[in-house]
Please model this.
Amino acid sequence: NTSSYNGLLINLRHRCIMKLGMGLGYSPAKLTIPMDDILAAEKAGFDSVWAAESYGSDAVSVAAYVLASTSKIKAGTAIMQMQARTPTMVAMTAMSLNALSGNRFLLGIGPSGPQVVEGWYGQAYGKPLTRTKEYISVIKQVIANYDYQQNEDKCCYRTPSISVSNQTIYEKTCGEFPSFLILKSILTKLL
Model:
């Protein structure tokens, strides 16, 4: 009934805020960016636009173009493939795009899949969870101005000891971005 539905909405307003985002997908052969749609989404109050990568175009270039062509909407990578970049390079890229865009860049990384990693990058796919945890750890440390020291327990990354600072990006690396969720399942978990 309508009254319980309205009560549900009021209850949800106190528990969470849902933000709308627009996924751009990736452009395998010919890169196209739907700027008219992105500008319409920005005007409509969308929170973010997400660029992907697989075979072909990269997500960082698309996100940078969107950030330079807009004024309010955030742009993120969904995802930057970890095997294509060192974690220190990802941290530097994120800090640069965030600074140039007025804190509107959102960093999304991931291990991709065996077909892309082994077929496109020529690397072994093994230990994606371990690799992801270590990768995120390095990014957080670089962004939070820590000196990263190679640990014997780390299997995937060696990085230099550096000193940079960008608290805004560090705070953003502490979350998750769920996609393709079914609203009913979200509501069930929240209530």
Summary: Residues 20 and 47 are 6 Å apart (CA to CA). Confidence is low (pLDDT under 50) at residues 1-11, 158-187.
